[in-house]
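Quick entry between incubations.
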Amino acid sequence: MSSLLVLLAPEIVLFITTCIVMIVGLWPKLEVRSLAMPIAGMGLLIAGVLAINTPANPESILPNIIPYAKAMTAGVGLLLVLLLAGTVDRSYEAAVERGELRFNPIHTNRAEFFAFFLFSLTGLMLCASATDLIWLFLALELVSLPTYVMATISTRKLRSQEAGVKYFFLGALGAAIFLYGFALLYGGTGTTNLIGIRDALAEQAASGGINPIAMAGIILSLIGISFKIAAVPMHFYTADVYQGAAAPVSAMLAFVPKTAGFIAMMGILAAVGWQYAPGGETLAADGVGTLPRSIYVTLAAIAVLTMTVGNVLALLQRSIKRLLAYSSIAHTGYMLVALIAGPSIAAEAGITSNGLGAVLFYLLVYGVTNIGTFAVVACLERPQPDGEADELDDLEDLRGLCRTRPVLGWVMVICALGLLGLPPLLGFWAKFLLFTSAISAGEIALVVILGLNSAIAAFYYLKLVTLPLLEEPEGDAPATTPFASRTFAGVLSAALVLLAIIPTGIVDAAMEAADRAGTIVPANIEAIERSITAEALRDEPTPIIDR
Amino acid sequence: MLHPLTTLASQPNVALDQYLPLAVIIVGAVGFAVANIVLTKIIGPSRRGANKGMSYESGMNPVGTARKRFNVRFYLIAMVFLVFDVEIIFLYPWATTFPNLDPANPDAGIWLFRIFFFLFTTIVAYVYGFRKGVFNFD
Amino acid sequence: MSESILHVLILLPIATAAFIVARPAGEAKTVALWGSLISLVLGVVAAFQFDWSNAGAMQPEVSLVPWLPALGLSISVGADGVSMMLVLLTLLLGPICVAASFSSIKHRVKTYYAWLTVLQAAMVGVFVARDILLFYVCFEFTLIPMFVLISIYGSSNRKAAATKFFLYTFTGSILALAGLIYVIWFNATRMPVEAFAGAGEWSFQIDTLRQAAVRMSPTEQGWVFAAMLLGFAVKVPLFPVHTWLPLAHTEAPTAGSVILAGVLLKLGTYGLYRFAIPFTPIAAVDFAPFIGLLAVIGIVFAGLICWVQDDVKKLVAYSSVSHLGFCVLGLFALNTMGQSGSVMYMINHGLSTGALFLLIGMVYERYHTRSMRELGGLAAKMPVWSFFMVFFVMASAGLPGLNGFISEFMCLMGTFQASDTLAGSSIGATPGVLGPVFAILAGTGVVIGAMYLLMMTGKMVWGPLREPKGHDHHNHSELADDLNAREIAVLTPLAVLCLVLGLFPTPVLKGIEAPVNDTVRWVQEHGGLRLYRDPAPARVTELSPAGVVTPELAAPAAGGER
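Done. Structure below.
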């Protein structure tokens, strides 16, 4: 019990920070309530430090994932906190400062905004510690529910409310689907514990194939979770929601639910295991194989459609946020390829062939890079008479940005090239690991599709590069937000994208995090052996037994 | 010990006859509902008319529209009530495990911590509500 | 040759670029010129340190600087004779490009020179990489500077041109990366550790991976070869993926065109030479006729297009497509004659076509047109320019005595010999799959090339003077009527080299012979190439310049564990 508390220490810290932020953010004194954001940052920092030192959890299906996943959450969370500054209550606080209004907490959103942000991150961390389906479900919902509210209150405009409602209803649909999947999975295996499910599934696979109910449960769960990661059958909300919400919130939506969804998918797939004979539903003889055929086909179809749809639709966009939304869909597709490849459990596999590690690393790189691009959108604005500023969201607004606003312009250029995966930027190494892991797993066709899609993506990322870098500016320099921390977040992420030397340690950490996930457990080995002996016995002539 | 469903699950080809009682209940429930509606339609007397169609058949005439705006604070109060009400419900199961707090029990501290943590969240919610001004009804 | 000098050659341009950015715009061109001159001097020093008697071996022998230990990655550099030559070409074109841009680049000067020097670092990096990822990183990174140079400093349609250039190359190279990673994976997982040094490890060393790659089954080799071909053929460019080149050339600024024609196209042929052919020899042999066909189509087709061009820069651009066709043909002859001719061609084409682009840029600066309908008889007004023009056209057309001739001849000769057809005759035959038909078809390309180049010279240089209507160049340009001292200084080294290489190519040929011989021997051994028709196998050794043909060649060594 107490060991569990140690494992959950980062979550507990975040939760307590949430409680403090919730109350501090409502304080009548401006100096005190402005502390909400720094306190949130401090909490994340402490949680991150605690996370790095968290021990492995042998009871988890992904035993080593906790330190990496939680530290990643805290790290990207820190960047997001910087970006979220000043998103809500801007005109209200201005009016209070001018003395036009008396401060009334019921009309403000600051406390809730940061508290919900931290709640969502807590949920993400809980996803990484989940050992049980029910826990996983609650964690996933804890990730999503606050984001619905955050999207809605992020601006005072109608589009945000529309975005929030859309997001909520489709999110509820997704949650219903994967909850149903979880229920079926329980029905098919008799337990909600992920390790128990793994053993039960191995047992079933060894004795004639996975129970169809359990299989249906797994597939439904994957499809339901594809809402969280913005994969194709459930991607419809993405562009509208990202566009409707304020840019800082969109940046968060592109990272937090996606990461939670991928970690959940990893957990479920690790319970299934990548040890089935290719193209079949039975265990491979040496225990080294791929996913069962039906899951494989489902995921491969989702991956291919996600990449292609995301990239093709991104080509057509005029709005930066919509473009980034579709690119986010495409990146989901790339990561799915490595997820299908799985952790290479072959004995001779090297560090570069672990697909789960590749996904974990990619998530971090994508999160950081994406924050850079959204930070630029968040920093540019068109002042409005009511004090709320409108974001500059059209591609044309980037024209000549490197000359008018050099810092923002270069952040956009570097991060767009990073998303494209151009060497030697950080994004290249992330994509490189996807390639190596997928090739190691023999997914040549998927790799070729991935490569072609990266090439399509070059089309629209080039727009994000050429417009600021090469075009001449038109008219005056665009206005920027007064929130320096947003620019700082952008500069920080661009700097990280440039520092291709850094990944050494992080790649190691990511690979270690994915280590031993989905490896053959003793129970499975026994099951496999039993099935082999059963096979052998069947071939022998039936012995005459004296009853 | 294996869960009973596990044995079912490990025999994928066995028919779902263990679910039979469940099916019977479902069929029974649906049948009962459908039968009631159908029987009322068939057997029950049905008269129509202006008076019969009024909201209050007893003779009181409805006045004004039924759609009325409530003060939003009613909802706030209702929600605050719901939250605290539900939290109190959670205190009952904890009370049944009171013997765990025996000082001889090595885990007593954790049992105490749990409920304090829970109460802490309740207090935070209360302070939040208070600060937010949901208790001001002006 | 020390390892550090190669590192310096990569890092110095980057430092120069940083310095350019830090200093005021007025100093940019001076800094860039000095930086590139120092690089050139260092390059010459490296060439002197290089042990030419052992040009076939990578020098220095061992080179490892840890880079990303997590991935088992290190930066390892080195050069053999071929790499060294191409590095020297790159370094030579550096100061020439900088000096050629002095008068034509007027706005955003710092950006221009900074990217130009960074581009040089990337190109040197490609040629000295001994590590697949360093190669790939530099190969891809060349896109960005070139993209910027074309799309800021090009002419009217520059953005479309730059985008097309980027997308074509990026698409190809992503697939090439997939092919290369497959080889890396194959080496790590399918090779028994005892097979050779580095087997069974996640190694990125080109030497190690070459050992592993040839052990792949023919089917695997076919796919890997196809992937690499897609990547490199776009860069070469080989018909039918050449369409980005004329556009990019016409829109690029002069120095951009020079770099593009002089070095960037060679990245493609170098990739074929260094990776595609030695990694997958069986597939290279199988595909050679097909690629030879594409090359011949490119030679003839692009030549015919040149004939009807009005824009003189476009003409030279298409002539590059045609010339690089010879280069590819020579590579896939898979014999020493063809391949050394091809490497020679890379250098010569860089010199002469680079110079042609410079000359056209000089005219364009004065008249602001490149149309042959508006320009003519310039010999009367610009005698020095005309002298250089005629000289480089001759070099490009392959006039004996100038550099183009020797390489073109070697490519064609290599192609001619590369089959069994002439086994036993006095011309000789080498193991190969092309042969006289390819050589004769490509030979028509030589004739076509001479025709369109002479036609262009005739229109531009001789005849009555024609200038664009209403032209009074003193309104447009502060440049003198004829070439000024700077322009002459830019052209002279190229002209001298063209002449020297034409008259006395032996030192260069010797330098590239050893590495090419190694490659050819390697391909013959592992690609199962031998003469089939020859009744007396003993004679093969005499006939084939490549030399070694051993009896057990037919069976590729110890492949196909899968």
